[in-house]
Design brief:
There is one protein chain. The protein is mainly α and 152 residues long. It is built from eight helices and no strands. It folds into two domains: 2-59, no CATH class; 72-149, no CATH class. The longest helix has 20 residues, at 40-59. The protein is elongated, with a radius of gyration of 18 Å.
Length: 152
């Protein structure tokens, strides 16, 4: 009986914190299913459980805007540190989810930033030996030297 009561309290408590997303919380699942009630939240939670919810919380994307763990000036360096391999792959293609997340944090348009990073891939990622601070410096140089690279 105690276990059932505790479970009910947890369920009621978590639904009180649901904002622009359903009971499954923020993340890609919330973008797909929104705050729909019922069984769709199980699917939303399953999608969130693939790791995209953690990414959303850290980067402040995917409906995880206000509760992001990292804010302000620390957001971009932390994002690069955590996602440098995926970011390098996206930058090599000039597009992708990780690149779009970085562009969002920087206040840039990913359609402009992607090609600029692709064009400067060797300098930003290869010559930096994947050092996160050197990657950030390289990206900032590209944005500074090419004003259209960020073009919001």
């Amino acid at each position: 009986m105690k276990a059932i009561l505790t479970l009910m309290m947890l369920l009621v408590g978590t639904s009180a914190f649901a904002a622009a997303y359903g009971d499954a919380g923020c993340g890609l699942g919330s973008l797909v299913f929104g705050d729909e009630k019922g069984f769709s939240q199980v699917f939303a939670a399953t999608i969130n459980g693939t790791g995209v919810q953690t990414f959303g919380i850290t980067s402040g994307t995917s409906n995880c805007v206000d509760q992001g763990a990292v804010k302000g000036a620390q957001a971009v360096p932390m994002f690069i540190e955590v996602n440098k391999v995926a970011l390098a792959k996206d930058a090599a293609r000039g597009e992708g989810e990780t690149l779009a997340g970085l562009a969002n944090l920087m206040g840039c348009n990913s359609k402009n930033l992607g090609p600029a990073l692709k064009q400067n891939y060797k300098t930003i990622f290869v010559e930096s030996k994947m050092d996160p601070s050197a990657i950030e410096t390289g990206i900032n140089q590209v944005v500074t030297q090419n004003h259209q690279a960020c073009g919001a």
